[in-house]
Write a structure and sequence with these properties.
321 residues, 15 strands, single chain, Rossmann fold, 2 domains, three-stranded antiparallel sheet, alpha/beta, L-2-Hydroxyisocaproate Dehydrogenase, Chain A, domain 2, seven-stranded mixed sheet
Length: 321
């Protein structure tokens, strides 16, 4: 196993805290990825963690060699990445913000257990509402902000690319566009910076014989925003999409890709926003967030971003950390 003696980190070790639908799906996705050689699963229900580890282990012969086992908080000490998915599930009719009080309480029990182990790795927040919980994790942990960030709108952005690709009948990987702001109802589709392989989106749409730009954009943005609600109404939970988002973020960290991903990180005056975590494009590598990336936004998008931040700040102010 690779170790950095200076920081006592095992760069091939990941810990997942929370073995519900999202945690288990993330573990399965990471097992298949081959990114890590050791994965520890922690849950308040030890038997649940053991069962998930056993089940996923049985697929290892079809993937890459890997140790997968249920553990406890002592296992976080030398992990390079700790992923927190633990939290109350979003139920039909609930918004992500409805989960705030319950999940802040859960974080107050989890974060101190991590920090008391002198954790030197990256803390990836996946539980919802992810932007508020990222802010909470930063404040509770006292860790450097570049090492504490959330999955943010990585999944929402993938949904946006998928819907644009479907609309234009092109490979979604050729679509370059971001959802920014809250991972939730106030999220913003940054249309002014969207393009397909360098061609401005409106122009590309016209090449594909689509001309009602505003109508199409509104429809696509609403589909993306409501995707989770639609899935939850049908199957009670969402987990595969976010699991693949977790894998993508871990790829950027483990491989030091310096990829630009829309993750949730603390704002310090960008676009006039201060003291709250929001999802914005950022360069992600082995040390976490290197820097946020200022993308082109028009005045309306900036105003909506500020409103999104205000919504989150008001919710956070109602809850003691």
């Amino acid at each position: 196993m690779e170790k950095n003696c200076k920081n006592c980190l095992n760069f091939r070790k990941v810990v997942i805290i929370g073995c519900g639908f999202v945690g288990a799906a993330s573990a399965f996705s990471l097992m298949q990825s081959g990114l890590f050689s050791e994965m520890v699963m922690i849950d308040s229900d030890r038997a649940k963690a053991e069962g998930e580890a056993m089940d996923i282990n049985h697929g290892v012969p079809f993937a890459k060699p890997m140790q997968i086992y249920a553990g406890d908080y002592d296992d976080v000490k030398d992990a390079s990445v700790v992923i927190i998915t633990a939290g109350a599930n979003q139920k039909p009719g609930e918004t992500r913000l409805d989960l705030v009080k319950k999940n802040i309480s859960i974080f107050k029990s989890i974060i101190p257990e991590i920090t008391k182990r002198d954790f030197k790795g990256i803390l990836l927040i996946v539980a919802n509402p992810v932007d508020i919980l990222t802010t909470v994790a930063i404040k509770l942990s006292g860790l450097p902000e570049n090492r504490v960030f959330g999955s943010g709108t990585t999944l929402d952005t993938a949904r946006l690319k998928y819907e644009i690709g479907k609309h234009l009948d092109v490979d979604s990987r050729s679509v370059h566009a971001f959802i920014i702001g809250e991972h939730g109802d106030s999220e913003i589709a940054a249309w002014s910076s969207a393009n397909v392989s360098g061609i401005k989106l409106d122009r590309f749409c016209e090449m594909r014989h689509h001309f009602n730009h505003e109508q199409a954009q509104e429809k696509i943005a609403n589909v993306v925003k409501n995707s989770a609600y639609e899935i939850i109404s049908r199957k009670k939970a969402t987990y595969f999409g976010i699991a693949m988002s977790v894998k993508r973020i871990c790829e950027a960290i483990v491989r030091d890709e310096r990829s630009i991903l829309p993750v949730s990180s603390m704002m310090h005056g960008e676009y006039g926003i201060e003291g709250i975590s929001l999802s914005m494009p950022a360069i992600v590598g082995k040390d976490g967030i290197e820097t946020q990336v200022p993308i082109q936004l028009n005045d309306e998008e900036i105003e909506k971003l500020q409103e999104s931040a205000k919504t989150l700040q008001e919710i956070l102010a109602q809850n003691e950390i």
